[in-house]
Amino acid sequence: xxxLVDLSRTDLNLLVLFEVVLxxxxxxxxxxxxxxxxxxxxxxxxxxxxLLNDPLFLRTxxxxxxxxxxxxxxxxxxxxxxxxxxxxxxxxxxxxxSSARRFTIGAPDGVSAVFLPPLLDELRRTAPNIDLGVRQLxxxxxxxxxxxxxxxxxxxxxxxxxxIAVVPSEHIxxxxxxxxxxxxxxxxxxxxxxxxxxxxxxxxxCEMQHLVVSLTGDPHGFVDEALAKQGxxxxxxxxxxxxxxxxxxxxxxxxxxxLPRRFVAIHAAHFGVVxxxxxxxxxxxxxxxxxxKVAMMDAGLAWLFGILGKAQASExxxxxxxxxxxxxx
Length: 329
Fold this sequence. Notes:
By secondary structure, this protein is an alpha/beta fold. The chain has 3 domains: about 10-90, Arc Repressor Mutant, subunit A, CATH 1.10.10.10; about 100-180 and about 285-320, D-Maltodextrin-Binding Protein, domain 2 (3-Layer(aba) Sandwich); about 185-275, D-Maltodextrin-Binding Protein, domain 2 (3-Layer(aba) Sandwich). The protein has helices at about 15-25, 25-35, 40-50, 70-90, 110-125, 145-150, 150-160, 200-205, 220-230, 245-250, 260-270, 300-320, and strands spanning about 55-60, 65, 100-105, 130-135, 165, 175-185, 185-190, 210-215, 235-240, 255-260, 275, 285-290. The strands form 4 sheets. It has a 5-stranded mixed beta sheet with strand order 4-3-5-12-6, sandwiched between helices. Strands 10-7-11 form a 3-stranded antiparallel beta sheet, covered by helices on one side. The chain has a two-stranded antiparallel ribbon with strand order 1-2. The radius of gyration is 24 Å and the shape is elongated.
C-alpha cells in the first residue's frame, strides 16, 4: 500500500524555500528574498533534502544548480504553492484599484511593443499601483517545429518565472489557458524615399539588400522559405537581435526588411520608416496570451489576463476602424 505522509510533521514553508532557491540559484539572494539568514536557508535546504531524499541543489562558484530531481519536482511544487496561494487569497478579494502587485509578462519584442501601450493605458485608468515586468521571449534556436519552438516559454510559465506569455503559436499544451489577442502579418519596411517603394516587384525585392531580425545571427528565415518556393533567393546583408534595432538600422540605410505590420504601424513614424505590401505571399500568425490553468485560480492573474485581452481587443478595433479625421477648411 502507498505510505501516506504525515503533513503535521512537515513544514510546508520548505516548499516556498525550494521555489525561491530554484528561482535565484543562489543561497544568499534567496535568503534576502525570504528575510532569513543564509545559514537558516542552508539549514532549511538540509531538512528539505532529507524530506525529498535528494541533494536538490549542488554548489558552484557562482551559486547553486538544481539536480535532475529538483527540476522534475519544480512543476508539481509550483502547482501546489499556486493552489495554496489561491486558497489564501480568497480571504482578501483582489482589488485592482488598490493592489500594488507586480506581474511579469513575456513576449518577443515585436509583440510586446504592440500590446504594451494599450495595456499600460488600461492599468493607468483602473490599477495605478500595479507594476509590470516584461521579458524578451525567443523561440528555441534552430527549432522548426511550431509545437516545440516555444517550449522554453511554457517551462518558464510552469515554474512561475513569469505570469503570462504572449507567443505566436497555435500549439498550446492543454494544461495552459490561452486567449487569442490579434493576428499579424508582414510588410516590407524601408527608409522614406527608398527606390524599392516605386516598383515593389518580386524581382526587385530579391535585388535589394535585406535585414533580418535574428538573435543568433542566422540569416535564414521564413521569407527565404517563401522565396525558395517560387524559385527566388535574396542577400541578407545584416542581422540584428530585435525589431526596434531593425527600425533604427533601416531608417539610415538602403536595407529593407520584412517586419510585423502592426508593430511597424505603431512605431515606424518615429524612425521615418515607410512600408509597402510584400510582393509575395508571407505567413500570417495569431498571437496568443498563455498562462497555466492552475495559476489562473489566482484572482489577480486572472484579472490581468482579462485586462490584457480587453485592452488589445479595443486597440484592434481602432486598428481596423481608425477614427475619421475632420478635414480642415
